[in-house]
């Protein structure tokens, strides 16, 4: 498994915007967010069904709650992006 590639994909999705109190107020998608989402899906589809290393690593990095859910919540105007999240 290409951990550096997977890490770059997850890091390139975007960043959560927070106010001064640390509350989430939005999400700033990365420049290649859609491409990274497609690559992440490709990694997950090709993940070994026995060991599930990609799935476990994505869960360990908490990518779902840090990136995927905020993309769905805050980028609803971009239908293609939401469907790939």
What can you tell me about this protein's structure?
- The protein is of the alpha+beta class and 85 residues long.
- The protein has one domain (3-84).
- Helix content is 56%, strand content 13%.
- The protein is built from five helices and two strands.
- Strands 1-2 form a two-stranded antiparallel ribbon.
- It is found in: Nucleus.
- Keywords: Cell cycle, Nucleus.
Main sheet strand line-up: 1-2
Report the structural category: alpha+beta
Indicate the mean pLDDT. Answer: 93
N/C terminus separation: 22 Å
Number of domains: 1
How large, in whole angstroms, is the Cα Rg?
A: 13 Å
User: Strand portion, in percent?
Assistant: 5-15%
What is the H/E order?
A: HEEHHHH
Low-pLDDT sequence parts? none
Which of globular, elongated, flat, extended, rod-shaped describes the shape?
Answer: globular
Number of helices: 5
- Helix fraction by DSSP (H/I, runs of at least 4): 55-70%
Number of strands: 2
Largest sheet: 2 strands, antiparallel
Key structural traits:
Timeless_N, alpha+beta, 85 residues, 5 helices, Timeless N-terminal domain-containing protein, Timeless, nucleus, DNA binding
Compose a concise summary of this entry.
Keywords: Cell cycle, Nucleus. The protein has 85 residues and is α+β, with helices and mostly antiparallel strands. 56% of the residues lie in helices and 13% in strands.
């Amino acid at each position: 498994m290409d951990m550096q590639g997977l890490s770059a994909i997850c890091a390139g999705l975007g960043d959560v915007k927070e106010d001064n109190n640390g509350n989430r107020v939005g999400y700033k998608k990365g420049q290649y967010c859609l491409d990274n989402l497609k690559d992440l899906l490709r990694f997950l589809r090709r993940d070994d069904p026995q060991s599930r290393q990609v799935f476990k690593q994505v869960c360990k990095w908490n990518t779902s709650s840090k990136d995927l859910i905020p993309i769905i919540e805050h980028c609803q105007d971009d239908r293609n992006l939401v469907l790939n999240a």
